[in-house]
Amino acid sequence: MKLYLATGNAKKLKELQAIIAEAALPVEVESAAALGGMPEVVEDAGTFPGNALKKAKGLLEIAPEDAWVLADDSGLCVDALGGAPGVYSARYAGENASDEENVEKLLRELDTIEEMNRQAAFVCVLALANKAGEEHFFEGKCSGEITHELYGEGGFGYDPVFVPQGQEMTFAALPAEVKAGMSHRGEALGKFLDWVKGMR
To answer: φ and ψ at 160, to 5 degrees?
Structure first.
């Protein structure tokens, strides 16, 4: 199976490749860079599955005929903010906002929210598509809470302020393999890998 990952995010790509490689399945993984880079996609679907499929179809247009494309749309949904930032997680503080700016805005929004009301969940939806018109979706979710300050040097995005349920450290402070075993992206990928196994 030839699989192209529809993302221009190097850290996300590395995380996806590591999990797929560990599964030791007959999946040849390439990045969007192998096709000249990820095409510009307007993420205006309003849902994680809708945005993931738009990204998959965007790369599929320039992919080989027999290729599959896997795209991810994920975000942080905070209960006290009515599910925000949600699908706008990557641009919460503005269209070209950095991870740091997004995290700063989130902490400002939650400044007056007490410890017991800072529940949140990371959600990831993977969309898999090919040129024959097949589409499959795999969803993962990781519940936890938002800290008051940043902790940890690893990860990316909101990882420095998210403590997964049952842990005392943020995603950014946990070892990468521990995060992969419990993360929203790890769960969604696990469902995708189970699907691949079922094809063999």
So the answer is: -70, -10
Q: Alpha carbon of 33 to those of 46, 62, 80: distances in Å?
A: 26, 11, 38
Q: Which amino acid type is present at position 89?
A: S
d(CA 125, CA 110): 25
Over range 75-91, report the average pLDDT.
96
Distances (CA, A) of 186 to 39, 40, 108, 130: 25, 26, 29, 22
Locus of tokens 């991870």? 99
User: How would residue 191 be classed by pLDDT, with cut points 50, 70 and 90?
Assistant: very high
CA 139 to chain centre: 10
Contact 123, 185 (CB under 8 A): no
Would you place residue 51 in the very low, low, confident or very high pLDDT band (cuts 50, 70, 90)? very high
Tell me how far the alpha carbon of residue 123 is from its chain's centroid.
7
Residue 73: active-site member? yes
pLDDT grade, residue 200 (50/70/90)? low
- pLDDT, average across residues 140-158: 94
Rounded to 10 deg, the angle between the 10-22 and 184-199 helix axes is 50
66: nearest Cα among 135, 3, 137: 3
Options 44, 66, 72, 73, the catalytic residue: 73
